[in-house]
UniProtKB/TrEMBL annotation:
PANTHER family xref list: CARBOHYDRATE DEACETYLASE (PTHR31609:SF1), YDJC DEACETYLASE FAMILY MEMBER (PTHR31609)
Cofactor(s) listed in the protein's UniProt record: Mg(2+)
GO molecular function: deacetylase activity; hydrolase activity; metal ion binding
Listed InterPro entries: Glyco_hydro/deAcase_b/a-brl (IPR011330), YdjC-like (IPR006879)
Protein's UniProt name: ChbG/HpnK family deacetylase
């Protein structure tokens, strides 16, 4: 029996090497989704490249609220004109400091701006919405994301990434359990909140690891595919090398390892062995 999963590459638009690497893998049939950073300077140029693969992959928004320049003014959230770290945003979220009126107004406006940029340059609504460093899960952000999707798009047409994964599966998989458990805990309650608004979600979330040099990525992918389940989503972060990315990102080497493996015959053999087909969540 074949299970259909979404294999989604995050960070499209971060740099030329990221975008070109992701696009090459979609063309090859080795990815079935990508999430786009629309506030980066590369997005207007890179967005049209996706037109040729729009019927082969879920192309969505990778909402970015950390370590980047906002798409517009955020005086309460980014008073210096740049978002802070994910740790700082989590601290504000988990202590209720994102719930003030001014900060909520900033967040609402920024979510809409990044969605506007997606539509303006991709020429269509996103297939899905998720968050860079999983920020869409955070208290103070989650409700605004769900409300924006429900307000802007027809019921059931755009899904939101659910990062929940059963405890037993995380423990059995044995891959960076603390990090995976934190993300799954943050996601608790997202699926029912989305369902109340008529928003679909994926069914299971894999791909969490620490990007440490020397990790056995082929071995990790073998674990992420188990158990094979329709509607599960695995996130990956492939890229081709480029100088821009080298100046932005500390995990460039891991991205290149992912790129090479996903493009190779061994990955296709793994999919066939495990009875997995890559596909879009909503068809």
């Amino acid at each position: 029996m074949t299970a259909t999963i979404v294999l989604n590459a995050d960070d499209y638009g971060l740099s030329p090497g990221v975008s070109r690497g992701i696009l090459a893998l979609i063309r090859q049939g080795r990815l079935s989704g990508t999430s786009c950073m629309t506030a980066t300077p590369f997005w207007p140029e890179h967005a049209p490249w996706l037109a040729e693969v729009a019927d082969r992959a879920d192309v969505g928004l990778h909402l970015t609220l950390t370590d980047q320049t906002p798409a517009g003014p955020c005086p309460a959230l980014a008073p210096n004109g740049r978002f802070g770290s994910v740790g700082a945003l989590m601290a504000r979220s988990l202590t209720g400091r994102l719930m003030g009126a001014a900060t909520q107004a900033d967040l609402k406006a920024e979510i809409d701006r990044q969605l506007d940029l997606f539509e303006a340059h991709a020429g269509r609504p996103p297939a899905h919405v998720d968050g860079h460093q999983h920020v869409h899960l955070l208290p103070g952000v989650r409700g605004l994301v769900l409300d924006a999707v429900a307000r802007r798009y027809p019921r059931g047409s755009v899904y939101v990434r659910n990062c929940s994964e059963p405890l037993a599966a995380i423990l059995a998989r044995g891959v960076d359990r603390p990090k995976a458990l934190i993300i799954a805990t943050l996601a608790r309650g997202l699926a029912p909140a989305a369902a109340r608004r008529g928003i679909p979600t994926n069914h299971g979330f894999r791909g969490v690891y620490d990007f440490a040099p020397g990790r056995d990525f082929p071995g990790l992918m073998a674990r992420f595919l188990v158990p094979a389940r329709d509607g599960a989503l695995i996130m990956v972060h492939p890229a081709l090398a480029d100088d821009v990315l080298a100046g932005l990102d500390p995990v460039v080497a891991s991205r290149q390892v992912e790129q090479a493996y996903l493009a190779g015959d061994a990955f296709q053999d793994l999919l066939e062995r495990d009875g997995v087909r890559l596909g879009r969540l909503l068809g």
